[in-house]
């Protein structure tokens, strides 16, 4: 049964326009519905102005509170002001020592900027000062400590100066909050809770919950919670940050009893937050049982991390001033004239644009604030949003669009309540930003602005609702006054079709996304089921090294100037020179994983946490769905789902905590200490797992057996001539061979890609030597080449492994506690691709892959399916390797666009794989005559 287009159109429009609960506008004023939940965010220090990082925290905090309200809860938004402690005394000492004007008014500054200037002045003067006491404190630091002690003792003049300073800062914060649309229901000061917390800690020392050291400091032992001894009061009686937070939350919970508390903070506070929660629980505080931490990635600049104390932080006010000013130059003639005549309207647009920039990055990812990215990458999308609102608000009726053309838009609108629910559950408004982008794209594709007024009205209401949840408020006057063309927007194909849709966002499709990112003529979207970027997390063992040159990254081999290169990652994160000093011949895989995650965090065309559950082949397109949510259509589907762990059939029923594939080693985290461990597989993964158990972290195994069917533990063939097999020229040669010859060649090339690095073999051998002869920790180990695992059976006591010698034929059963299968990977498409998989052409049970990585299939002639990392049988040994990742992505992009955007056949080689005559036949004939 299929719903008619007219019925579907009316049903969705009715649901939206009747303002059913999933579509109703958000109420900014609190009402009595739902459970009350504290949402604590911003939480600034009262010694400096709000900066760029605070903007992200505020935007996330407001959006998360709105999402909770949309789910029927009653958010109570709270700012916890850090207005006590040594960091406040640094600024206070600066004011007392270098007045530079008696007040913000006299200095012509906002209060928070006035105080922040003195904080910077303190640290500038303190920099390079010699320490004068056993704590390595400088004279200025000792003076600041003395101020804190005097404040704690209640020194009246000093207390008055402190209160005056914090009030200046609070007045400045209030102006900035009003500017960015942050609304608080309550403000709690750490200073207000100090008396109560001292009484609480005094009792905790008496009852033994807390302890007092010989120097008089008070601490609580949280080591049994996997943490540390947390100091609450210093020896001089002053409170630490943990005591200050404790006092603030006590004060808040006393006057606002709630069932839940949500705290939004930057990722660098994750560990302190865990300690704070453990502290609350240990002290038995009401409210401690249901406190949720929501951490977000940090915000930095292209030249490194911001530090307010050093004066290099980008203040929230300064950034918004710059964006408001530059809007006029960056977007001339594209906004209503009234917006530019009214400074408050320009202010709204600037704030909205910055919110749109920061909220479109997943909460867990870091943000590098880049002005060029703001103007060149995000402004065009923001322009498309304004254009869409204009279209929907004006709704001229020049023609009626057939209902069938509106189905993709209607499907998106229908999914709005589910999108809000998912965004609320994940505590991440990025899903709403993507929803807004999708609505704009579908509106443009459907031409809805020219017809179907009810659907246009419904789309306008949903868009405004989504923007309301995000806290993005645009000026009034969105009418036909905005021109119909906004330059810089990427073209949208008819039927809401992307030029390229990728399933999976591992390194292969991440490379494709990075190379496509600068191309305005190509629209792309990639969907990944994992909540964030993952690269073999279960096998990211300590000291694992990359086996390729680090310049063979996601983009450099075909586009060395691409901003998503590994070298730019090093430069942007401020580590380039230190990296070069390490003489990096083989870099840690952990660092390359950081690089991949950095690229993923910068790309707007990847949606994480979105599994593709169904792919259908239509008459002229390929459509993708995630549950009931329609994701989009494409004529070019790129399958980058990666390979699946290859596990022998007899081992599959036993997979778990005792038997595992190497890919899940760290996920399962089997304890090796004192246990009998079997590692199966003689490749690089097997060697890394063996080294992992030999490292002795947590204790050595009682027995370690390493078994491989190979003749020995063989080193990788890393010679330069063999490495030419990992060259585009060789791929062209390999593709031209017969299938039988390709299979024969691959078998002979195995050690060029699946041998063990010589350094790792030497490390393992050296480690065994050390254990045998001078560490005093002999290990019962057994390294067995030419032996094959035939079976695994579970018994009450252990796992029985049946091994057969390939040389003698002898079979024996041995018992182990842990078995790690380093048995490689195999091509396997997920169930969602069943409809596509059934139409792919195969030879000898292998997909037929053309030279441009498209596959032969019987789908629509205007549609192509490409494969990433599934063509070793047709394209050679380098296919599953990272070496040609960028080149393969460039080949696919060139094929989609139909022209050579990226050069793919320029590199030279020394090897000639196909003999060529040096003198052509015509010249040869002439010579002989």
Percent in helix: 40-55%
The poorly predicted ranges are 25-34, 396-404, 479-495, 917-929
**Largest sheet data:** 5 strands, parallel
What order do the strands of the largest sheet run in, or round the barrel if closed?
Answer: 3-2-1-7-8
Categorize the overall geometry.
globular
Determine the mean pLDDT.
Answer: 81
Distance between the termini: 80 Å
Number of strands: 32
* Cα Rg: 32 Å
Structural class: alpha/beta
Estimate what percentage of residues fall within beta strands. 5-15%
Describe this structure in words.
With 929 residues, this protein is of the alpha/beta class. Helices cover 41% and strands 14% of the residues. A five-stranded parallel beta sheet has the order 3-2-1-7-8, sandwiched between helices. Strand 5 and strand 6 form a beta hairpin. Helix 14 (371-394) packs across helix 17 (430-446) and helix 24 runs parallel beside helix 29. The longest helix has 25 residues, at 156-180. The radius of gyration is 32 Å and the shape is globular. 42% of the residues are buried.
């Amino acid at each position: 049964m299929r719903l008619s287009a007219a019925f579907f159109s009316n049903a969705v429009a009715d649901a939206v326009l009747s303002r059913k609960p999933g579509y109703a506008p958000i109420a900014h004023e609190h009402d009595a519905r739902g459970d009350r939940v504290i949402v604590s965010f911003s939480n600034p220090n009262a010694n400096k102005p709000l900066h760029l990082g605070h903007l992200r925290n505020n935007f996330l905090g407001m959006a998360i509170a709105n999402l909770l309200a949309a789910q029927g809860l009653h958010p109570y938004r709270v700012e916890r002001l850090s207005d006590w402690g040594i960091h406040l005394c640094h600024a206070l000492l600066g004011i007392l020592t270098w007045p530079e004007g008696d007040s913000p008014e006299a200095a012509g500054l906002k209060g928070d900027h006035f105080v922040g200037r003195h904080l910077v002045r303190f640290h500038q003067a303190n920099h390079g000062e010699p320490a004068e006491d056993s704590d390595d404190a400088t004279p200025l630091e000792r003076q600041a400590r003395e101020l804190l002690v005097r404040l704690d003792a209640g020194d009246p003049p000093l207390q008055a100066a402190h209160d005056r300073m914090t009030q200046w800062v609070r007045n400045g914060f209030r102006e900035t909050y009003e500017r960015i649309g942050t609304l608080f229901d309550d403000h709690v000061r750490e200073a207000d809770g100090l008396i109560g917390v001292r009484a609480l800690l005094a009792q905790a020392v008496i009852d033994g919950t807390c302890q007092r050291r010989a120097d008089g400091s008070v601490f609580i032992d949280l080591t049994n919670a996997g943490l540390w001894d947390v100091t609450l009061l210093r020896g001089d009686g002053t409170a630490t940050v943990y005591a200050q937070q404790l006092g603030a939350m006590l004060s808040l919970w006393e006057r606002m009893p709630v069932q839940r508390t949500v705290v939004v903070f930057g990722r660098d506070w994750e560990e302190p937050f865990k300690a704070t929660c453990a502290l609350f629980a240990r002290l038995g505080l009401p409210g401690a049982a249901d406190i949720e931490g929501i951490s977000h990635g940090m915000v930095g600049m292209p030249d490194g991390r911001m530090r307010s104390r050093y004066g290099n932080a980008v203040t929230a006010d300064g950034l918004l001033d710059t964006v408001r000013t530059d809007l006029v130059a960056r977007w001339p003639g594209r906004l209503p004239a009234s917006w530019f005549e009214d400074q408050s309207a320009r202010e709204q647009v600037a704030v909205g644009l910055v919110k749109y920039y920061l909220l479109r990055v997943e909460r867990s990812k870091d943000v590098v604030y880049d002005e060029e990215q703001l103007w060149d990458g995000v402004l065009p999308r923001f322009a498309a949003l304004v254009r869409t609102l204009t279209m929907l608000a004006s709704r001229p009726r020049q023609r009626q669009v057939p209902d069938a053309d509106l189905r993709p838009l209607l499907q998106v609108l229908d999914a709005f309540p589910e999108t809000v629910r998912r965004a609320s559950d994940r505590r991440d408004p990025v899903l709403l930003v993507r929803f807004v982008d999708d609505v704009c794209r579908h509106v443009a594709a459907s031409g809805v602005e020219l017809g179907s007024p009810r659907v246009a009205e419904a789309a306008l209401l949903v868009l405004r609702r989504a923007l309301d949840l995000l806290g993005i408020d645009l000026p009034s006057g969105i009418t036909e006054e905005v021109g119909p063309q906004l330059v810089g927007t990427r073209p949208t194909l008819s039927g809401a079709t992307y030029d390229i849709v990728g399933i999976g966002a591992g390194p292969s499709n991440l490379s494709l996304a990075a190379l496509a990112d600068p191309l305005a003529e190509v629209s792309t979207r990639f969907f990944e089921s994992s909540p964030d970027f993952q690269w073999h997390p279960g096998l990211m063992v300590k000291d694992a090294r990359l086996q390729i040159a680090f310049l063979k990254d996601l983009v450099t081999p075909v586009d060395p100037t691409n901003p998503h290169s590994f070298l730019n990652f090093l430069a942007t994160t401020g580590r380039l020179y230190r990296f070069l000093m390490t003489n990096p011949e083989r870099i840690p895989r952990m660092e390359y994983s950081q690089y991949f995650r950095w690229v993923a965090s910068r790309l707007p065309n990847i949606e994480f946490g979105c599994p593709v559950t169904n792919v259908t082949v239509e008459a002229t397109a390929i459509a993708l769905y995630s549950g009931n949510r329609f994701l989009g259509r494409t004529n070019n589907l790129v399958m980058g789902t990666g390979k699946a762990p290859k596990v022998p059939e007899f081992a599959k029923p036993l997979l778990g905590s005792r038997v595992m594939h190497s890919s899940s080693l760290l996920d399962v985290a089997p304890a090796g200490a004192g246990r009998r461990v079997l590692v199966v597989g003689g490749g690089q993964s097997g060697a890394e797992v063996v080294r992992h158990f030999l490292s002795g972290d947590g204790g050595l195994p009682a027995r370690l057996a390493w078994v491989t069917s190979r003749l020995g533990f063989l080193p990788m063939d890393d010679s330069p001539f063999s490495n030419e097999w990992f060259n585009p020229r060789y791929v062209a040669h390999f593709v031209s061979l017969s299938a039988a010859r390709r299979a024969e060649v691959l078998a002979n090339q195995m050690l060029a890609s699946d041998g063990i690095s010589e350094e790792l073999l030497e490390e393992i051998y050296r480690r065994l030597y050390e254990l045998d002869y001078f560490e005093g920790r002999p290990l019962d180990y057994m390294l067995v080449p030419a032996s094959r695992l035939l079976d695994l059976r579970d018994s009450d006591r252990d796992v029985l492994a049946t091994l057969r010698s390939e040389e003698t034929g002898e079979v024996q059963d041995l018992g182990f506690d842990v078995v790690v299968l380093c048995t490689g990977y195999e091509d396997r498409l997920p169930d969602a691709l069943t409809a596509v998989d059934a139409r792919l052409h195969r030879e000898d049970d292998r997909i037929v892959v053309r030279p441009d990585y498209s596959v032969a299939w019987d789908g629509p002639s205007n549609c192509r399916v490409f494969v990433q990392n599934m063509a070793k049988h047709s394209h050679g040994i380098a296919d599953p390797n990272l070496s040609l990742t960028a080149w393969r992505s460039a080949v696919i992009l060139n094929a989609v666009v139909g022209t050579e955007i990226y050069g793919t056949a320029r590199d030279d080689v020394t090897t000639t794989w196909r003999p060529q005559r040096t003198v052509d036949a015509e010249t040869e004939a002439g010579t002989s005559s």
